[in-house]
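The instructor's notes for this session suggest beginning with a concrete chain rather than abstract definitions. Hand out the sequence below and ask the class to guess, before any prediction is shown, which regions might be ordered.
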Amino acid sequence: MMPKSLQATPTSTVVSSLRLVLAGATDTGAWTLAVMHTSRPSFARYLYARLGPGSPRQCLGHMFSRAFGASDFTSFWRYWNPFLGYFLAYFCFAPLRRFAPRPLCLIVTFALNGFLHDLVYLWPFGFARTARLPFPFPVFTLSLVTNAVIILAAERHRFTLAHLSLPMRVACHLLALFGPFAFSVGILLLTRI
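After discussion, reveal the predicted structure:
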């Protein structure tokens, strides 16, 4: 059951909830996810749908278990870091999606995500500086754009991890997460030679 503080339903979501009732869906999570596709939910409702109830420690555990247990790369990113995901989904991806194709929107959203990571974690400390470039190397940006391309290729070829055991899914997600990052760091190191 959804907490009372999150149960306020805007009128624009009544239609989607009626569709779920007519379809026989009684799961609160399914209701919340359907609402998220028709209007922008509050940040609290979005986090509740992605992480479920519990203390901050439990929610962090839910994030890791749902992300690494996901049956495909798209689902992994749906559950990974929902705190930043909310703002990227509703203030970058959704506005772009009004006039651009989904693949382009996904790449631009992941590029913005990478740029924000570079801006916060690498560039202020000089970790990505190189003598050959007049600007810091975009390590996270390149890595996350590569992740977006992996997602698009997996969707295009209907690649799924559903048939794999949980340890193999975790290994695949770790490889897809850290492989592009290692590639990006490798390119950074090559620019320093």
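Then share the key points. The chain has two domains: 1-53, 66-191. Residues 66-191 form one domain.
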